[in-house]
């Protein structure tokens, strides 16, 4: 078979962003906000704050609780903050890539952080380097800063709007100057970003679960192609739509896997979405069985939904050791397999001699499902029927979610029957795209990793994509 290859424009990032405007103890709030977003990235984190005159920043490689201490937070003075938790795959690690970035310029300092991926980063970077820009990191986030300062005689807002219109892809950006905080989302609304209120000030977050964690109230979501500006000494924020032809193509994987179940994404609670997917699967793919089990933890909601709808009892048939990181983060296949074993144990007394329905949110490489099915069978399960709460993942993501390359995606190379055989299941079904829209109660979502219909141009040559004519 011809080699399938995916060349990312740059490193892939999942990440989460959190910001504060006009609140006392901004650094502490950012710390708790980022802690609530830790599931979005465990590799590095950082916070930048401002007191109106200078910008202060601390960042490091590790978890929020490892990087920040009380003394470090005390150094981060001011009532405004932006913060970031970072997830990166191979090639993208190192302190230089940990955000927020901080830029010193005689026309004014600023800091920025980003969740997502810029698909035209290579071309933009080349253009900027030819004009004299020198990049400090390999992250494409830095491109926005160079674009903003490309013509620094321009009014700051006009420069930001022009820069945002030059970049294409998925993004939620937070930009902070001593006087203002700007927050924005890409024109397709691929990455989430919400605004909350707290004691007369504002907070911003990739996920609403962080608002609950700090006692803030959800105000509204940032619209696709919207730039919201918070200015010192101005009680009301202002907003402009910086791009036209916008769409609402929120990443479906945020609902399926990535976001925390207690977050609401554009009006739909993530747990309720997953539970509804489970219910739909029970109606569409029934099977006679004794217990329903969810692959911990992201599939628990869907498993509860399947159980409620089918009347088959839900059991905690698999227990996750919370102190092992997500298996996906392990770099090699061999390590991943070891990770899965460390992470999950079956409850023999609950599965022995039973016909099990195993619910998982997605199959990427197939490693997790295969491993779990073996664990359940070794623990005495007589049958394992697998129900996946999303369609077969056949295409890579170019928008900042690490869903892997064509060659690694098991469903890019195999049909459902073949995948069923490979993972050694007794039966296998994947939930269809229409069910995701129904469960999210919305007309549109990005489903590109399932159907290859990317909402943006990809800026990859056919040779680079090397997808056997799939594009
Ligand atoms: P795999 O073993 O490669 O098939 O991975 C599938 C498992 O990884 C599923 O159980 C998901 O919960 C989880 N998963 C799906 N997408 C991602 C992602 N982008 N990053 C990390 N984990 C993921
Ligand atoms: Fe999300 Fe998939 Fe679209 Fe990427 S391709 S943004 S993972 S739905």
Describe the structure.
By secondary structure, the chain is of the alpha+beta class. The two termini are 18 Å apart. The relative contact order is 0.12. The protein contains 18 helices and 21 strands. Helix content is 30%, strand content 23%. Helix 11 (333-343) crosses helix 13. Adenosine monophosphate (AMP) is lined by residues 257, 295, 298, 326, 328, 360-369, 401-403.
Summary of the model, kept short:
By secondary structure, the protein is an alpha+beta fold.
The unique ligands bound to this protein are: adenosine monophosphate, iron/sulfur cluster
Q: Overall mean pLDDT score?
A: 90
Total strands: 21
Q: For the largest sheet, list the strands in their spatial order.
A: 3-2-4-1-10-9-11
Query: How much helix is in the residues?
Result: 25-40%
Specify the oligomeric state.
Answer: single chain
Pick out the low-confidence regions: 1-12
Strand content: 15-25%
State the separation between the terminal residues, measured CA to CA: 18 Å
Count every helix, treating DSSP H or I runs of 4 or more residues as helices.
18
Radius of gyration: 22 Å
Shape: globular
Q: How would you characterize the largest beta sheet?
A: 7 strands, antiparallel
The computed structural class is alpha+beta
